[in-house]
Protein 1
Amino acid sequence: MPVSGQTAPQSAARRSRNKDKHPTAAARLLRGAAGRASLAPSLAVAGLLALTTIDPVQAQDNSAAAGSAGAQTLPEVRVTADASPEDLPAPYAGGQVARGARLGVLGNTSIMKSPFNISSYTAQMIQDQQSSTVADAVNKDPSVRFTGLPGGNIDNLYIRGFPVGEGNTGEIAFDGLYGVAPNYRVYADYVERVEVIKGPAAMLYGMSPNSGVGGVINIVPKRAHEDLASVTASYTSDAQLGGHVDVSRRFGEAREWGVRFNGSYYQGDTAMDNQSRKAGIGALSLDYQGKRLRASLDVIGQQEKIDAPGRAFIMGPGLQAIPGAPDGRRNVTQPWEWTRGTDESLLFRTEYDISDQLTVFADAGGGWTQLSRLFGTTPQILNAQGDTLSTPTYYKFKVDRATYDAGLRGRFDTGPVRHAVTFQASAYADSLDRANTTGTPVASNIYNPVVRPAQDLPAPGSVPKVSDNDQTGFSLADTMSAMDDRVLLTLGVRQQRIRSRNFGAAGAVTSSYDESATTPMAGLVVQPWKRVSFYANYIQGLSKGDVAPPTASNSGEVFAPYKTRQYEVGTKVDFGRFTATLAAFQITKPSGQLTGNVLSINGEQRNRGLELNLFGEAAPGVRLLGGVALIDGEITQSGTANAVGKTPIGVPRVQANLGAEWDLPWVAGLTMTGAMIYTGRQYVNQLNTASLPSWAKFDVGARYRTRIAGKTATFRANVLNVFDRDYWSGVTSWGGFSQAAPRTVMLSATVDF
């Protein structure tokens, strides 16, 4: 019987072939942690005990099916037909993208049956392109742009012209949940899939921690799909050496128990002057796949230290135009400045099939981040000659996050209509502690950096809490399918309460926020032919409303959460081994602004766009991945009359990517690769008086797969920015801008044991 393309709920018979990839945490952990951001260390112990005391239940052995699932090219895209142990959507032809992705509470959904424009990049693509972070991987998507500096300590991203990932609370979801992924940077070493859901997604995922509305990036952790062991050695210019170990095993009479470990270490000089980096990453994943019960535990730890970290720039007072970009190797950060961060994350998940039609699920997890840094405030460029000024500051940050949810998934029929219903109750909380000490301003130059005497700043004596936030809510969604699953209508709604407090230096509450909002969605998919889909959606994004500042005449007034609205239509065509998708969207985002001395909701940004995506095998041995995004961004309302009609900060009119791979027919195992990334002009200020020029960069590479002493070995070489072009790569949401990385050589060798 055809299926709707969602993973849950499923019949027990189907689940015996098709284990859910997203088990969730024990309900007793949900009750015990009381929804706050600071999780006790005992949570990890409780999760381990819960996982290791599950009664083994006989389950079908999926190892043989799992080995062949990824190689199949099915005549019709059906995510639930994938036979891997954890219901991982199968790779599409060429192996660079997957056939489906997770849509929050809706579960895994095939690309052809999704009412949204989604992309899911595989571990194979990440490894072959040697993407070290999630930001590197998603930058291959034409609708996404990484606007941070590669040598910086935080990854900033834009999706559909809206910023995602900036601030002190992580915006990347982990296995469908906010609050677990590392806060400032997510390494790709432990990532099986990087999924991009384009557009607002408040109903699907809840409000993002930092109010991002352009889309959602969700990472799927590596799990024990099969027995494997591999070792990778890597080199990145100028002298960054690294190693990575990936080991996976399944155990038990029916191979119901799984364990996977990923560990990495990197150290050495980068391509930027005076800069070096040291990073260690460890990730452990345990899972149990029973007949009715499924559970998993993911534990992640990572540390990173960067000497002379790269910094974005801002325009100084009186600067009319941005000077030309410097050599990407130049670094105005002083050699004695540094940043050091530590992240720990945990997620425990369970789900149980009460019957063939009803499943109960729950999960609990969180993340802890500590960051210390000594480097200058965002450097100001003072004049056309590129002189800069910044003030070294010793900062300490501590960010705690927690996430919980529980719910039911049910499946039933009403006449000719099939229903897949999900009800979810969820809670998220975070807190931020911060303190700093300030040094003496330092002058330098973007073209000829000047080394200044080191400043021995003392660490802050205490690190008080400056804010905390929590969100609670309920969501209900129903996907109705009819006409042999040729028509699918999804209706959903989420009610969410948002509470936050800001604290002064003495610990007293200086402002607070407590508001609620309801965000609906509707999505329609029609498949007149098996390989052609037409879709439409209406969905909202959610951002915390403003509180009028003390300087306003309406000081203390609390505004309701801002609702971003998206309308989208599109079509998807699967040619068998090559797929093309086309989407048209409009997103309007309101905002509050001071007009005179009154804060009111009088601002609005509207982004309209077209997106064309291509992926798969264009010909035998030839793979393409890329597309183009055309974005017409406009400030439609503003308290500043001259800003109306202008282009919003950081929104280029054109973004284009094209990547190609060619398996040389006369040399078995040898593949040549190339990629082009283009970004149009971006404005740096609201009145559009200063901008960054358009740019294009080219990457080339090769890989060779062979067998040595009976073991499979893969050698990879990539050269990024092969023409060593100097350019400003992107704009942050607050008007900062980053220089691009110089020509960078990346080499690696992987041996599978």
Protein 2
Amino acid sequence: MSEPLSTDFIHEIVTEDLAAGKCPDGVVTRFPPEPNGYLHLGHAKAICVDFGVATDFGGRCRLRFDDTNPTRENQDYVDAIERDVRWLGFEPDAPVRFTSDYFEQLFQWALALVDRGRAYVCELSAEDLRLHRGSLSEPGRDSPWRDRSADENRRLLLAMRAGDFPEGSRTLRAKIDMAAPNLHLRDPVMYRILRASHHRTGDAWSVYPSYDWAHGQSDAIEGVTHSLCTLEFEDHRALYDWFLTALDIERRPRQIEFARFNLSHSVMSKRKLKRVVEEGLVRGWDDPRLPTLAGLRRRGCPPEAIVSFCEGLGVTRRESMVELARLDHAVRERLNLTAPRALAVLDPLKVVIDNVPEGEVRWFETAVNPEDPAAGMRRLPFSREIYIDRADFMLEPPPKYHRLSPGTEVRLRSAYILRCDHVETDPSTGAVTLLHGSIDPDSSGGQPADGRKIKGTIHWLSAAHALPAEVRLYEPLFTAADPEATDDADLLAAVNPESLTVIERAWVEPNLADAAPGERFQFERVGYFAVDPDSGADGLVFNRIVGLRDSWSKAVARG
């Protein structure tokens, strides 16, 4: 085994455990998502930690679905989670596992605790359970059924499994300490009666294990050596250890907690994400405005950039707020190296070049990606009528304006020097409708023969060859820097009304005619874009992944 690259506290603990001989079969970690929603960036960090530690120590990482609540889980979520994990570039230790694989073993262990007088069947309602639990300042109260005999508890638990009692009428609870300072030790629920069909076991079970009962035991069954989780599970650790001790399980996982992070102008609470989706504020779990991995994939973010972003956050014990611009930077850095270049005009203004004959087509070559010489060259057609972006022309420009205006020259990227000779406007509104210009025929490739200095360079498209496209521009979904801190009533008020702008008729270069869904491009001088799955026979559809620079967050900061 080579020395691990990371030096965070988790790596230090694992290194110590290996040196002490605590992992005779090697390091085993796991990623244990609940299949009740889509993965988001917070999960991506957990995946990077779980798989990264296993990889660094030459170990294995399991993917195990914690499928203990059939009322909220389904196979679609399972499929989506598997797809996301592999999309990020991680391959779980085969086979993919489920807590439901261990339902029988868990139930037999529960019976063993009942027989040892360490668990009992309780008939308190959910509300009474809450009231009996007490608070941080007050001890809980014993259940009236806490002192039933082991034989009676066994009979009742088997009857619960057989479906003899109504849903919610009874639970199985661990018998620990109702006065424990740690509320998780106050006789926690191990099983509840649920009349629900499970996505894998169907109607075979009438009782389902709680997360706290199933989690540590499932880790032990799988031989997990290090159970890596976020800080909200720190208080649960004592309960996991109690169960393992009560069952006489010798080789137990070591739980290590690390801090989660929040992303500015976004939410990563599964409950809030679900609300945003179900109330129609976005188009679905894969909406590119969401921090879900499905949304980021649809937007066009490279998985390598997401992994780089997560690894760059480090592993700490302090929760943090991470600026959205940091994610954008990681995405931009990756795309700059890998994305082919293309010309696109989102807000077209037509220019007629009067000294180019009608019907004549000239061709220019330019790099597919200047950062990658191996990518080669691409050809661009040039004709009498071209489109430029409306933002690249002003009738009355301010000082030091280096784009096009009446009587001035600009460089058409990779083509010619263009001069604006005449402007047509709408008589009623004064809006510019058409430009007439001329090229310097001796400036092929954008270099004037006389060496005069041309300060401005703009992009363009041959109008006769350009392809129509729909372009979707995304901004952060929330205007509030920390929407996680808002209550449910204020969450909707924090939604950014300009989070999506749809340009129904933009133009792109003809080389993109066969672009496939998911392909990424840098639209020169505009930003990075990816082909949306909606592209097809009806035309090209592009999602903006990220701009060429972080202009949005700076604008928000300026207020």
Protein 3
Amino acid sequence: MTQETGGFAALGLNSNILAALTAVGYEEPSPIQAQAIPVILSGQDMIGQAQTGTGKTAAFALPILSKIDPAKKEPQALILAPTRELALQVATAFETYSKQMPGLNVVAVYGGAPMGPQLKAIRQGAQVIVATPGRLVDHLRRDEKVLSTIQYLVLDEADEMLKLGFMDDLEVIFEAMPASRQSVLFSATLPHSIRAIAEKHLRDPQHIKIASKTQTVTAIEQAHLMVHADQKHAAVLRLLEVEEFDALIGFVRTKQATLDLAAALEAKGYKAAALNGDIAQNQRERVIESLKDGRLDIVIATDVAARGLDVPRITHVMNVDMPYDPESYVHRIGRTGRAGRTGRALLLVTPRERRMLQVIERVTGQKVGEVKLPDAQQVLDARIKKLTNSLAPLVADAEASHGDLLDRLTADIGCSPRALAAALLRKATNGQALTLAEVQRDQPLVPGSGSSAPRERSERSERPDREGSRERRAPVPLAEGRARCRTALGARDGIAAKNLLGAILNEGGLTREDIGRIQVRESFSLVELPEEGLDRLLGKLKDTRVGGKPLKLRRYRED
């Protein structure tokens, strides 16, 4: 274990935490981790001055998880984050690092999602709460004892919290926790307001400051593609149709994902294999040798399984799953563009991962430009180009070596040389679609391709990818003169289209013909209303309630 996790093992972390770090391929602690982890483990309050991208989430998550008792079914750690996106990112990190800790539960508490399930998770004993201040104060109004058992508090990006006006909420939260708690504050800057919080609420904190260093990967052409999580396999297959690669390594987060994607690629005729931590060393060596000599063209790997992999043929790296931190991204794409060679790195980004994309760009000091999913015409052109390139070298001496056979076959079959050539092409291409109509039928456009990238909905209930694709369906096109509006009420609130229709008709003074399509999703609904006078109408509906819950209808901006 010590060898696997390098310097982490020397920091005094729980053995289960070290096992989780090995599984995700962490090797050496970053500077902020090396300095902060021992301080937090010691129980001392701390101020960490560090930028996003320095590994600060692990710097507080790892020692706090090492101190938490999973057997105690009560909130023990509270992490406050300024935004819903960061709260989700931090909660995901805690879940990743605690995979080897049975009984430990994490709940993300943020606005835009129903309060009931969040409060239920807390009452059922989630040991870690990751929250935005505003929503947490809402919970405290319902149950002032929610935070009475908190032993560890982290303020992440404290300066951003103050910029967003959360000072009063923070004071309410501080008062609701035991004074004996350990408090840790992270902030990129330390203005007077942050220092005032530290002086009032932290006890003799140790101050750690880490400079952010830029990592450059100039030899590698980088691009990202916005795609929803349930579209990733389709997006990978479409990209591979048009990317001109020699060998490619694709990175995913889990062992199962390596097997699933490699199998999908094999089914499409690619020479692909999986590489993960369950694969024996001799098999691993065979996979790498096959990639080197051309028997394989694609390897789908986890971070830990790709450690030390150096294959000169690799021209492309595809980040199918977003890496956990910017350092991992730099390591991944460094598998190409080595020794002065050029390389290309593609990154699939889901809407909830936009923030990490921005962090990667800042840490690497480079813009990761956006590309669109290839359309059917581009796929067709790429297929014909590959076919042309495969046949061109054969034409030079084909007539001399096979001309007589051609004459005999056309005579025996009773067909023209053109008909025979077409039949041989059909056989050679194995039924592959090679007309525009066929490509469009076989490869329907993934939502978001050929148009603007999928946008994160402003009031959207951010839900984990595993909950399925119902929340991600692209809205149907709008009729002229209509605007689409959104409410956070959905099917799980017991809402049906007729409920929304009735409320809007009663309160808005509209006729049935004024209201267009109503789409009820799991955690929100979309309603089409007249564009003319919309702001006035929304004002009239401001206090409307449906099923006892506020409608809060507002304009839905898709761009």
